Amino acid sequence: MGRSPCCEKAHTNKGAWTKEEDDRLIAHIRVHGEGCWRSLPKAAGLLRCGKSCRLRWINYLRPDLKRGNFTEEEDELIIKLHSLLGNKWSLIAGRLPGRTDNEIKNYWNTHIRRKLLSRGIDPATHRPVNQEPLSLSLSDISVPYSKEQVKNQSQEEESSKGFRDLDLNLNLCISPPSQPQETKESLNRGKSCFSCSLGLQRSNECSCNGFLELNKTGVLDYRSLEMK
């Protein structure tokens, strides 16, 4: 819900203020102070809106206003403050005693902008108008790695990629550990084979060749064993 209007606009005067209205407003504020701007027009006997009374007093009637044209020092101060604050006219007016924000804004748009343009300065950016945009070349851009480091990094990426693409063969086979010939012969001396130690014989004449009866493929063949 919006804020209600400060007064009935149908019963208020509009347009330029008369000298009589100015005198009434000045006399009331000198006695009672500014107070509430909503109730001030009725108390001062003015058929004006409270907002209109406030703007009239602040911009034209208050005694500390500075009259006359802006000085050269004020112009330079406004330019410096605008470069720092931008279009914040109320803050700029706070640094110039006796000047109002509305007065400074109007003076900027009518005089100072033209002065800056005549100097070749952009009023918005406060930089030269014909300043060329910043252009960068490849030589001006710093590279975080040297050519050798980039080359080594690419080689590492290629090797890691080849390792990821490697097809591992997981078909494992188990076989007895390989032993030197001398070790096998030393183990076979004075020892019987597995079938003989269990009382099993494959034939009447058994020649032991190791602990286990292995075929040529190195796998124990139990089918060749016969019960005694």
From TrEMBL:
InterPro entries: Homeodomain-like_sf, Myb_dom, Myb_TF_plants, SANT/Myb. Keywords: DNA-binding, Nucleus, Repeat, Transcription, Transcription regulation. GO terms for molecular function: transcription cis-regulatory region binding. Its main location: nucleus. The keyword Thylakoid does not apply. It comes from the Eukaryota. GO terms for cellular component: nucleus. The keyword Transcription applies. Residues 9-61, 62-116 form the HTH myb-type domain. CDD domains: SANT. It is found in: Nucleus. This is Uncharacterized protein. It comes from Aristolochia fimbriata (White veined hardy Dutchman's pipe vine). The lineage of its organism: Eukaryota, Viridiplantae, Streptophyta, Embryophyta, Tracheophyta.
